[in-house]
């Protein structure tokens, strides 16, 4: 079941971010956010979160802060992203932006297939994020790529 994140029990949301992100704080070159306080949508199945998207709207720009799909290749991430994009259009945003890191090859592929374009690379940006959130790993444990740079992606609505 998909629904707005504000309807979700805060404890369940915080636990999800603790388990998947090492806390509710997300740090990028765009800023520092408490994901448990952001707008978004969640996919709940059998009482547990199977996916969620968080975002913040500033004037005519919707920034995706986090997107998680526990059940990959089932359309959950796509549907959550589409829900965020629909909300952005409803709020009269002109574009959607997001940041992902250089090691996240799956995310780079996912977003580009859905119309997002890499518009900027921020070399060594993750070092600054680690100063705020030291639990960000140095290397991706799945593909062994050093986590250093941020990629800024944009989709015009």
Describe this structure in words.
With 157 residues, this protein is an alpha+beta fold. It has 4 helices and 9 strands. It has helices spanning 10-21, 76-90, 105-113, 125-132, and strands spanning 2-4, 25-28, 31-34, 39-45, 48-58, 61-69, 95-101, 117-122, 150-156. It has a 7-stranded mixed β-sheet, sandwiched between helices. Helix 2 links the parallel strand 6 and strand 7. The longest helix is centred in the middle third of the chain and has 15 residues, at 76-90. The radius of gyration is 15 Å and the shape is globular. The mean pLDDT is 93.
- Biggest beta-sheet profile: 7 strands, mixed
Calculate Rg over CA atoms.
Answer: 15 Å
Distance between the termini: 26 Å
> What is the topology, as strand order, of the major beta sheet?
1-4-5-6-7-9-8
Strand/helix succession = EHEEEEEHEHEHE
State the secondary-structure class: alpha+beta
Q: Helix proportion of residues, in percent?
A: 25-40%
Which terms would index this structure?
157 residues, alpha+beta, 7-stranded mixed β-sheet, two-stranded antiparallel sheet, 4 helices
List the helices and strands and how they pair.
Blueprint: E1 2-4, H1 10-21, E2 25-28, E3 31-34, E4 39-45, E5 48-58, E6 61-69, H2 76-90, E7 95-101, H3 105-113, E8 117-122, H4 125-132, E9 150-156
Parallel strand pairs: 6-7
Antiparallel strand pairs: 1-4, 2-3, 4-5, 5-6, 7-9, 8-9
Short description:
This protein has 157 residues and is α+β, with helices and mostly antiparallel strands. It has helices at residues 10-21, 76-90, 105-113, 125-132; strands at residues 2-4, 25-28, 31-34, 39-45, 48-58, 61-69, 95-101, 117-122, 150-156.
């Amino acid at each position: 079941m998909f629904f707005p994140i504000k309807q979700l029990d805060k404890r369940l949301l915080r636990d999800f971010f603790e388990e998947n992100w090492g806390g509710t704080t997300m740090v990028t070159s765009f800023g520092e956010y408490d994901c448990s306080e952001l707008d978004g949508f969640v996919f709940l199945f059998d009482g547990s979160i199977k996916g969620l998207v968080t975002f913040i709207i500033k004037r005519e720009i919707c920034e995706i802060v986090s997107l998680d799909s526990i059940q990959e290749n089932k359309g959950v991430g796509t549907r959550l992203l589409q829900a965020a994009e629909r909300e952005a259009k409803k709020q009269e945003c002109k574009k959607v932006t997001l940041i992902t890191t250089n090691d996240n090859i799956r995310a780079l592929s996912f977003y580009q297939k859905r119309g997002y374009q890499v518009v900027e690379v921020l070399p060594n940006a993750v070092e600054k994020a680690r100063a705020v959130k030291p639990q960000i790993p140095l290397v991706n444990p799945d593909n062994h790529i050093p986590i250093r740079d941020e990629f800024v992606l944009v989709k015009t609505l």
